[in-house]
Predict the structure.
Amino acid sequence: MNDLPLVSVIMGSDSDWPVMSAAVQALAEFEVPNEVHVVSAHRTPRRMLDYATNAADRGLRVIIAGAGGAAHLPGMVAAATVLPVIGVPVPLRQLDGLDSLLSIVQMPAGVPVATVSIGGAR
């Protein structure tokens, strides 16, 4: 089996791990090579852009991006890569993830982000 990751699971903060770990678990069950990173659109924007820009060249095929609140990570990554991006709205105490969901689904034309249910990383 190829050890190079095909799927990247990224999140805006390590506090998103309880939700995003379900995606990693599902990928492991199907033996899909993956990698996991914390890449913040707000705290480390340059790192996030570098990551997204180079993802396809590194052999990745899909990026699963989880974020809560304003949830800019999936859209910003989608704007910087040709790879498909799946956005996972992470629920927070305020609004229980509705804000994240709306942020991810309301992308401008030309910057598609597939979206799953709130907290639906699996």
The longest strand covers residues 62-68. The two ends are 23 Å apart (CA to CA). Helices lie at 17-29, 45-54, 73-80, 98-105. The mean pLDDT is 95.
